[in-house]
Every structure is written in C-alpha cells, then in structure tokens.
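Annotated sample (chain length 163).
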Amino acid sequence: MNRLSALTLALCASLFAALPAAAIDAGTAAPEFQLNGSRGAVNLGALKGKVVYLDFWASWCGPCKQSFPWMNEMQAKYGAKGLQIVGINLDAKRADADKFLAEVPATFVLAFDAQGDTPKRYGIKGMPTSVLIGADGKVVQMHAGFRDEERKALEDAIVAALK
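Output written by the structure step:
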C-alpha cells in the first residue's frame, strides 16, 4: 500500500470512527443544518417544499468524480420540477475542495462542513453517500457509494419523490 492510500484510509477511519452505528431511517425527519456555501449560507429548512438530493463528498473520494457529472445532469433535468441537489464537502481544508471543483465543476448548491458535524447527524459511514429528502422534509432513502449501474435506480427514486 502506498503512503497516499494509507493516509486516505487513516483519514476515512478517523472521520467516521465517531459516527453513530446506524444511518437515518426512511420516513424520519432529515436533520436540519446550516452551513457556509459557495454562494452563501445553505440551510435545509429553507429548502422545504423541494425534493433534496443531499450528497456527502470529499476531494479524495474517487467515486465522487463520477457522481458530480451525473448530479449536474440531474439538477439540469429536474431542477425546474422541484429538485435541489446539495453537495456537502467534508474536507478539512477548503483549498482541497476548491482544487477538486476546478477539475470537476458543480452546477448545484455546495456547502462546506470541515468539522464533520452534519455527517455525524446523518450517520454517514463512507463517501459518497446520498440522502434523498422528500418535499415534506423526511428521508426517502439513503444510498452509499456511486456506481454506473446504479444511476437509473437513483434517478427513478428522484422522479418518484418529485411526484
């Protein structure tokens, strides 16, 4: 294992070691948060009435590089129908997130949680993890990882939540 891989594993382990044992169940109210974003404050409560696809990501997350173009596509396709994608970055250094975003831009709302408080409240264990939140503010589903073969199922869940 090279030094970077060992460091990445150590970072993951330390970040998620103190997290709750279980993720949030579908049907429960999504925990509120207010974070600094790239375009001002991001507050989940202000998005009530919209379907929110909340995505937890970090600059060192390989699958995140694949999920960003898909999330850009979903925001463009369903934004006018009530979808708001929110990416919450968990890097300790904002510069790391900015470098990632220079290579893989986002057309959706971005928020930054260097302290890692929000993923603790959501029971996030790995990245990327997405949380689909209905217009009523309740969790519809949580999904860990991002693989090409799951794109259709994720989009189908968004479409169903928008109905």
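Annotation: The chain has one domain: 25-162.
Annotation: Residues 62-78 form the longest helix (17 residues).
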